[in-house]
Amino acid sequence: MRKQKQNIEKKDVREPDFWRTPLDIDKENVQKGEVHIIKDRCKACDFCIEFCPNNVLAISEEFNVKGYHPPYVLEPDNCVACKLCELICPEFAIYITEDNNLKTDKDEQ
């Protein structure tokens, strides 16, 4: 009985297995984006950090002119230019640029 519980606990900790891939994965490029933050507009609501699907942003230690901690780009390579952070920001303090010259996942292979 103990072995079964230990096995279950180990399964909960490991990374998820992705059991399928898109059929057109070799034909499609994943768009990459570049995140731009206007630090002095930010009021540190953290919506951009909370709702980013790829955990691109994190809260910084520095202060802006309003006395808030603005976000910073933690993982720039993970940005897929979904622009959710741009849409959800109430202060218009963040925007994404899509550049065709940026490397895509397909270019790296």
Quick recap of the structure?
The protein has 109 residues and is of the alpha+beta class.
Word description of this protein:
This protein has 109 residues and is of the alpha+beta class. The chain has a single domain, classed as Alpha-Beta Plaits (2-Layer Sandwich). It is 24% helix and 15% strand. The protein is built from 4 helices and 4 strands, in the order αβαββαβα. The strands form 2 sheets. Strands 1-4 form a two-stranded antiparallel ribbon. It has a two-stranded antiparallel sheet with strand order 2-3. The chain is elongated, with a radius of gyration of 19 Å. The N terminus is likely disordered.
Keywords:
109 residues; alpha+beta; Alpha-Beta Plaits; two-stranded antiparallel ribbon; 4 helices; 4 strands; elongated; disordered N terminus
